[in-house]
């Protein structure tokens, strides 16, 4: 049996063979332990949704407009009354020290250097306050509802006090579907790795189940958030509250009606329920349900600036990048993440220029052609 080579230490320079943002994905296995890489790269189940996310982007064709003056072009976008230099956000990723010893702190430094909005995870390896100190720009906080409302409210108040500008509530992962790829690789979270934000809030003990009760329905789903929990949260904060994990147009319309400030169309990067549609496939129908002026973001499957263009054309105001940030972080720390973001933005700008779109407002459904599978309702 061939021994597994230990991962290399992160570099203090950009590797010369990184020519595009996606190159970090190919290079990352040299810098991440095999089990951790399987956990980061893998999806749930048979990974059908993970594959669908990538193939959906690949199937969308761009239709360039000719003779357009783009010399005054830019990538600025306004969300919740705040101007961002570009529409590429760093998605919330748990336990980033699996990729790099400095984890979320280096990611925050990269966000600071590139004027990028960072969405910090509830399950980060460093406290939300420490992350915010390393990015004085735009930060949002991703919130998982906790078993006790007092713990949830404590996270909200801490995020408000630390200057986070929005809350992103993840609702599609009440039960974490296991990654078979990670299980086959023998991956287990290191025993000393725990969510820094939850140190003051240990989880309640397990509830005993009667023999006739289900480990899933009466066990794991006992703590799943409800409509009442969401309504309670909306009443607790003045920050914009976004919901992440939306794939259905009817859910989107109902969440907008409840007072949610914006939505993130997402299938958890293929790490939730396997077999759901690609996020990109759901996007146009959700845009139709919420109207033209409602904030709508997308994650799951972004690998290039051209993918960003495709998402914007099909209805997104901005996108979030997940795995690419972990790969770049593993290869070269803060420098790698900043470089990956620079590449994505330049790839987007190049695509916009050649497609005849000077601003994000010029990117619409007429700028792309997509197959019938993306036209059918979800």
What report would you give on this structure?
The chain has 378 residues and is α/β, with parallel strands linked by helices. It has helices at 23-27, 34-41, 48-59, 103-114, 128-134, 149-161, 180-184, 215-219, 227-236, 249-258, 279-290, 305-313, 323-355; strands at 61-62, 77-79, 82-84, 88-90, 118-120, 139-143, 167-170, 241-246, 262-265, 296-298, 318-321, 368-369. It has a single domain (23-188, 224-369), classed as Aldolase class I (TIM Barrel). It is 37% helix and 11% strand. The strands form three sheets. An eight-stranded parallel β-sheet has the order 4-11-10-9-8-7-6-5. It has a two-stranded antiparallel ribbon with strand order 1-12. The chain is globular, with a radius of gyration of 20 Å. The model has no long low-confidence stretch (mean pLDDT 92).
């Amino acid at each position: 049996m061939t021994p597994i080579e230990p991962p290399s230490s992160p570099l203090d320079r950009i590797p010369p063979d990184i020519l595009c943002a996606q190159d970090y994905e190919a290079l990352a296995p040299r810098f991440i332990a095999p089990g951790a890489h399987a956990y980061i790269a893998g999806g749930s189940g048979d990974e059908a949704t993970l594959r669908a996310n990538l193939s959906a982007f690949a199937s969308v064709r761009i239709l360039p407009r000719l003779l357009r003056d783009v010399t005054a072009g830019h990538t600025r976008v306004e969300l919740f009354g705040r101007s961002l230099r570009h529409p590429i956000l760093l998605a919330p990723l748990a336990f980033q020290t699996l990729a790099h010893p400095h984890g979320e702190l280096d990611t925050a430094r990269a966000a600071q250097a590139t004027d990028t909005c960072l969405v910090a995870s509830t399950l980060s390896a460093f406290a939300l306050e420490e992350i915010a100190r390393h990015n004085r720009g735009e930060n949002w906080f991703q919130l998982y509802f906790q078993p006790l409302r007092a713990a949830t409210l404590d996270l909200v108040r801490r995020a408000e006090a630390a200057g986070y500008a929005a809350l992103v509530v993840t609702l599609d992962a009440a039960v974490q579907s296991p990654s078979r790829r990670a299980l086959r690789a023998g991956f287990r979270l290191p025993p000393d790795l725990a969510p820094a934000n939850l140190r003051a809030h240990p989880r309640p003990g397990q509830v005993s189940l009667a023999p006739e009760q289900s480990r899933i329905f009466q066990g794991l789903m006992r703590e799943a958030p409800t409509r009442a929990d969401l309504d309670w949260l909306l009443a607790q904060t003045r920050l914009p509250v976004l919901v992440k994990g939306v794939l259905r147009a009817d859910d989107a319309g109902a969440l907008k009606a409840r007072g949610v400030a914006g939505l993130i169309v997402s299938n958890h990067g293929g790490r939730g329920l396997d077999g759901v549609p690609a996020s990109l496939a759901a996007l146009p129908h959700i845009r139709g349900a919420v109207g033209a002026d409602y904030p709508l973001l997308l994650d799951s499957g972004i690998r290039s600036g051209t993918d960003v263009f495709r998402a914007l054309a099909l209805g997104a105001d901005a996108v979030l990048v997940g795995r690419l940030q972990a790969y770049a972080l593993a290869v070269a720390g803060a420098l790698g993440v900043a470089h990956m973001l620079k590449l994505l933005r330049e790839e987007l700008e190049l695509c916009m220029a050649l497609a005849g779109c000077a601003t994000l407002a010029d990117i619409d459904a007429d700028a792309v052609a997509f197959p019938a599978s993306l036209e059918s309702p979800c």
